[in-house]
Amino acid sequence: MSTTSMETSQPASSSQPPRLAVRTNWKLPDVVSRRANKGRRRRIRQQNGTYLDLLEKEMNSINKKVWAIGPLNSDTKGDKKKPNSCKHRCLEWLDKQSPKSVLYVSFGTTTAMADEQIKELAHGYVERVKEFGMVVRDWAPQVDILEHPSTGGFMSHCGWNSCLESITMGVPLLAWPMHSDQPRNAFMVTNVLKVGLAVTTWEQREQIVTSSTICKVVKMLMASRKGEEIRRKVEEIGGAARQAVKEGGVSCLELDSFITHITR
């Protein structure tokens, strides 16, 4: 897949975050509530600074503290390569590809698509890359795939773990949320952090995403000036996130503060 700069039109997006259903009888499970009251938050300040500032203000008003510790996925980017005997076959395939040329596609373990949508998805790739690449039907080492230098993008359902892993590894996203927290996560990725593009808007979730739309958004991420800007942004944020968990980083300092607090 070429990475030559070219201008394309902006794919569908929304300037407002998706609405969440309101439940008047909603209550946190006790274990979650206790953890919230203790102020333990697994977040990255570089990504959630505004939210954490607001949370700290509210928690401080009731004499509770907040510690921002994360990201919690392994900081392996740039580490020495694993022995070939330990490698998943998809990583061996990635070793043969050009840098940032592969689009990784995964929608998690609970996503179900209509047959018509699956066909459009497949046709969209054929139109853009002229080949399918590699299909992995069993478990795939997602973090290893995302940190591989050949991986240039991630089409995702935007589950939070997937978002966090992709951003931490400096890989831009194509956001295609399906349910639950995914629409809000996708909005953060595309509109707040600006480290990805929307495949379709949440308001159009009941409509079939055509192969031409898929082809267009893949081209924009992988082979356009806008895609290059997004890549630079996510690499910057990813670098800050990885730095946070190293010795002397903000996450380590927060963890030290937490340990000091509970052992005083």
Top CATH class of the largest domain: Alpha Beta
Largest sheet: 4 strands, parallel
SSE order: HEHEHEHHEHEHEHHH
CATH superfamily of the largest domain: Glycogen Phosphorylase B
GO molecular function, one term: UDP-glycosyltransferase activity
Pfam family, one: UDPGT
Family: Belongs to the UDP-glycosyltransferase family.
Keywords: Flavonoid biosynthesis, Glycosyltransferase, Transferase
Quick tags:
2 domains; UDP_glucos_trans; 45% helix; alpha/beta; 264 residues; flavonoid biosynthesis; 10 helices; UDP-glycosyltransferase activity; transferase; UDP_glycos_trans_CS; Rossmann fold; 6 strands; four-stranded parallel β-sheet; two-stranded parallel sheet
Q: Can you tell me about this structure?
A:
GO terms for molecular function: UDP-glycosyltransferase activity. Keywords: Flavonoid biosynthesis, Glycosyltransferase, Transferase. Residues 1-17 have a biased composition (Polar residues). It holds the Pfam family UDPGT. 45% of the residues lie in helices and 8% in strands. The protein has 264 residues and is an alpha/beta fold. It folds into 2 domains: 29-70 and 245-264, no CATH class; 86-243, Rossmann fold (3-Layer(aba) Sandwich). The strands form 2 sheets. The chain has a 4-stranded parallel sheet with strand order 3-4-5-6, sandwiched between helices. Helix 4 packs across helix 8 (211-222) and helix 8 (211-222) crosses helix 9.
